[in-house]
Write a structure and sequence with these properties.
It is a single chain. Helices cover 33% and strands 26% of the residues. By secondary structure, the chain is of the alpha+beta class. The strands form 7 sheets. Strands 17-19-20-15-13-18 form a 6-stranded mixed sheet, with no helix packed on it. β19 and β20 form a beta hairpin. It is elongated and about 95 Å long.
Length: 439
């Protein structure tokens, strides 16, 4: 009979071995799980490794100026104060409404504006165009008020014009209270915008406005001298947009700062046929004035290194649509005919700014059948080009030829062409053959 003590020792040894194996397997599973999680994170980082990181701005956008597409965004739809970047809207609204050699007289309200200011005196007169250089190069607050009063008669009336322009441009989260960007609030809300909509404002100023050339000339000027109308005082303005000399191809820009907004900036750059816009909101507070330049360079370089134009146009094969109850002059015995379709005003190319790995998809919608009569140039479908689930281009599909309705009168007329000497039915010129066709 086995010794009970030996049996107990063997059982204990087996249980100890099982515990050791269980702990070892658990550690292995944890290590394996940890490696899998780590690998997943690495893949995610690798996928976005070339995107800008560690931006100072709380809200930022890199935009394609041609299409208005956001190429990179960081909290781009958060509403924030925009300080003196406001003045790009002040300038473009003034350019679109001012008259040649228009002058403005300094009001008490204008002369009392806080720094930064031109330092005008009550009753002085200035040419409004000169004040636009003061507005955009030195960001003078009194010049902004004078521009507003000169265009609309009052600051309140001018800010209404600014808000109307914002609405016209589809800027749903932008609200103007002041023409100079000083923090403010009224019944419509606080003076604010988003990084996306600030970039869209700049897009309008440099790409779409009828006064875009004037805007670019003013904002790209390094130094400007002028006098008041009476020539009793002379002024000189220096452009404080350091971005103009920071990168090749810099086109335009506007800085801004208030206590609520922090440092803000919006600027544009052109390289080859590509135009990029950067907008920054809440990009640091004193003493971090240089943060906006660091962020701007980082975003612009990202755009230049990664986005290039690609022709995504695909030739459209001519298609046919069945037209029911139609008259085909080539085959009078055929009850139904076909209409050929084509793209209306088809371009030779469709260039889109794309990053490596991005693809544009085309989507064709076309009616399966038509009912006669069909007119030449009738819309029967659409061809859409889609990027990131958004339609970037749309073209109408139209008929290349027209087709009449197959009626009793039409059949008689076609028969006459085949069998009668002159191809005409006697008395047909004054007899109504059916209630849907007239001679």
């Amino acid at each position: 009979m086995p010794d009970m003590n030996q049996i107990k020792i063997k059982i204990a040894a087996i249980m100890l071995l099982l515990c050791v194996c269980t702990v070892w397997l658990a550690k292995f599973e944890i290590r394996e799980s940890s490696q899998n999680v780590s690998g997943h994170v690495t893949d995610a980082v690798t996928q976005n490794k070339d995107e800008p990181e560690n931006l100072y701005a709380r809200s930022a956008v890199l935009m394609d100026a041609d299409s208005g597409r956001v190429l990179f965004g960081k909290d781009e739809d958060i509403v924030r104060p925009m300080a003196s970047t406001t003045k790009i809207m002040t300038c473009i609204v003034a350019l679109e409404h001012m008259t040649d050699n228009q002058t403005v007289t300094v009001s008490e309200y204008a002369s009392g504006q806080p720094k930064v200011h031109l330092g005008v005196r009550l009753g002085q007169q200035f040419y409004l165009k000169d004040l636009l250089y003061s507005l955009m190069l030195e960001s003078h607050n009194d010049s902004a008020v004078m521009v507003a009063e000169g265009i609309a008669g009052s600051v309140e009336a001018f800010t209404r014009m600014m808000n109307e322009k914002a609405e016209e441009l589809g800027l749903e989260h932008t609200h103007f209270v002041t023409p100079n960007g000083l923090d403010g609030k009224d019944t419509g809300g606080i003076h604010a915008t988003t990084a996306r909509e600030l970039a869209l404002m700049m897009k309008y100023c440099i790409m779409d406005s009828p006064e875009k050339e004037q805007f670019l000339e003013i904002t790209g000027t390094k130094e400007y001298e002028f006098q008041d109308v009476e020539k009793t005082a002379a002024y000189i303005c220096h452009n404080h947009n350091a971005f103009l000399t920071m990168m090749d191809g810099a086109l335009s820009g506007k800085t801004g700062f208030t206590a609520d907004a922090g440092y803000c900036y919006v600027g544009a750059l052109k390289k080859d046929d590509r135009i990029f816009i950067v907008s920054l909101l809440a990009c640091g507070w004193p003493n971090n004035k240089g943060y906006k330049w660091s962020d701007t360079r980082k975003l612009m370089e990202y755009g230049l290194e990664n986005y290039f134009y690609k022709n995504v146009w695909q030739d459209f094969e001519v298609q046919q649509i069945l037209v029911k109850d139609s008259g085909d002059d080539q085959n009078i015995y055929q009850k139904n005919a076909v209409a050929e379709v084509e793209i209306a005003q088809a371009p030779e190319t469709l260039k889109v700014l794309l990053k490596h790995g991005e693809n544009v998809k085309s989507s064709l919608w076309l009616k399966s059948t038509l009912h006669a009569p069909v007119k030449k140039g009738q819309k029967v479908g659409e061809l859409c080009y889609v990027l990131d689930k958004k339609v970037i281009a749309k073209y109408d599909i139209i008929t290349r030829n027209g087709l009449k309705k197959r009626t009793f009168r039409w059949c008689l007329e076609q028969s006459a062409k085949c069998f009668l000497p002159h191809g005409k039915i006697p008395f047909c010129s004054w007899i109504y053959i059916d209630d849907k066709s007239k001679p």
